[in-house]
Amino acid sequence: MAYTLSVPFFPLFLQDNLGIQCGLEAWSGLSVSISFLISGLCAPFWGSLADKWGCFIASGIITLFSAVIVLGVKEVHARNAANRSNILQDLKKSGG
């Protein structure tokens, strides 16, 4: 439920943080749709894992997997922000 509460803010995130200006509606719709599609495809796998090893272990694996994904996205975002900063500094130096 917490994820669906953040959906109205996806276009703002895509526009402000990722710099997407063209096709913002399509990108926000695609990002929301893909996440729900992946959740639906992974649910049987996580359910069988919980049936086989127990809910506690499955929850731990899901939490670890989610943390790795979030940290990976954070790292990519940080690198993109640094690259944008370097490009802006180069443009200022060149007078453009």
From TrEMBL:
Q: Which domain of life is it from?
A: Bacteria
Q: Where are the transmembrane segments?
A: 26-46, 53-73
Q: What is this protein called?
A: Major facilitator superfamily (MFS) profile domain-containing protein
Keywords, comma-separated and alphabetical: Membrane, Transmembrane, Transmembrane helix
Q: Which Gene3D superfamilies match?
A: MFS general substrate transporter like domains
